[in-house]
Amino acid sequence: MMRAAFPGSFDPPTSGHINIIRRAASIFDELVVVVAENKQKKYLFSVEERASMMKELVKDRKNITVAVCEGLIVGFLKKMNINLLVRGVRGLEDFSYEFDISMMNKTLDPGIETIFMTTDPEYFVIRSSSIKELASFHGDLHGMVPPLVAKALKEKYS
Which of 57, 96, 149, 150 has the fewest CB atoms in 10 Å of its CB? Predict the structure, then answer.
């Protein structure tokens, strides 16, 4: 059985995230979406809110589960007996960052493999930080985030 994990902060989950998740889930027998909680970061949504949104967004796929990770991803993967990470990349900047992280993970646990999936072109410019900024000005989020997330953002900024 091929199992993989797709970690991220998902603050908020975007249409680009969902695209990568669904494509990865069509490749692997099981995909665990890992909602990261980094105590050093300030989030708009709590880890519970982010995990709840993600669970709702993937509930139609039986081979996708959602979990929360509050430590290093390599420790989480070891505990879950997963050795494959899926990372989405939009361009060279993302790839450079993700490559560095994959090398750190490989140093911490040589059994961890990382697969990079490029985004579909329509999601190339979508970034969670830009979405939060647009939402704070009550901009149109159509196509950038699922309706559930658009509603949650509207509530946060009302």
Answer: 96
